[in-house]
Amino acid sequence: MAETSEIIEIDITKLQPGDHIFTYLLEGVFTHHGIYVGDEMVIHFIPGPTIGNEEFPKSGPCERCQGYNGGSGDGVIMTGKVVKSCLHCFGDKKFLYKYGVSWVEALKSTCCPYQSKSLQEGLETANEKLNTGFGVYDTVKNNSEHFATFCRAGKRYSVQPLIDKFGDKLDAIENIDAGPDEN
Ligand SMILES: [Zn+2]
Fold first, then answer.
1. Which CATH number characterizes residue 85's domain?
2. Lesser CB count within 10 Å: N end or C end of the chain?
3. How close is the Cα of 33 to the center of ligand 1, in Å?
4. Where is the LRAT domain positioned along the sequence (predicted)?
5. What is the distance in A from the centroid of ligand 1 to the CA of 165?
6. Measured in angstroms, how far is the CA atom of residue 6 from the centroid of ligand 1?
């Protein structure tokens, strides 16, 4: 049986290192994802300091972290950056991302049909990418959800940006890697 994709706000005291969490940006227009790594910190993939990027407002620096945009770099255009931020800077309301849901559920909500690896593997991959990066950020092809699902499932998965931005589910479906035969 596939799990339900019901989305419930996280009790952050129950988060485990390796958990894939997400928050809503631009009042729910789209989601931003990361891997919780313990000590109230999250590793996530952002466009990097860019000029006039409305989607990713500056969030720091704060007492605990450098915030989304590294706290400096105004005017520097970067193509993508894996950063470590505190839970507060990551987002106001945080939700736990689910794996192993049915494909029908996955296309309706923010969750993934692939089976996840262990939390430990997700944690290790996130820490590795913090050093090595995750390539060029692309809202559609290489975003924060792709980053987090890569860490946890070994696959870059994201349907939501296409649906949210262009309302074209068919294009989104064609972009998904070949899925499992059964739901
Ligand atoms: Zn912070």
1. 3.90.1720.10
2. N
3. 16
4. 22-160
5. 28
6. 28
CB-based neighbours (< 5 A) of ligand 1, an ion: 60, 62, 64-65, 86, 89
CA distance 89 to 56: 11
pLDDT of residue 63: 83
Question: How far is the centre of ligand 1, averaged over its atoms, from the C-alpha of 59 (Å)?
Answer: 7
Residue 108 within a domain: yes
Instruction: Give 113 Cα–ligand 1 centroid separation in angstroms.
Output: 31
- Residue 66 confidence (pLDDT): 74
Residue 6, domain member (yes or no): no
List the domain range (segments joined by +) for residue 94: 12-174
Establish if 179 belongs to a structural domain.
no
Of the two residues 2 and 60, the one the predictor is more confident about is 60
Distance in Å, CA 40 to ligand 1 centroid? 10
pLDDT of residue 11: 86
pLDDT > 80? residue 178: no
**Residue 133, C-beta contacts closer than 8 angstroms, at least 6 positions apart:** 80, 81, 82
Whole-model pTM: value is 0.78
Helix (H) or strand (E) holding 95: strand 95-96
Burial of residue 13 (CB within 10 Å: 0-12, 13-18, 19+) is exposed
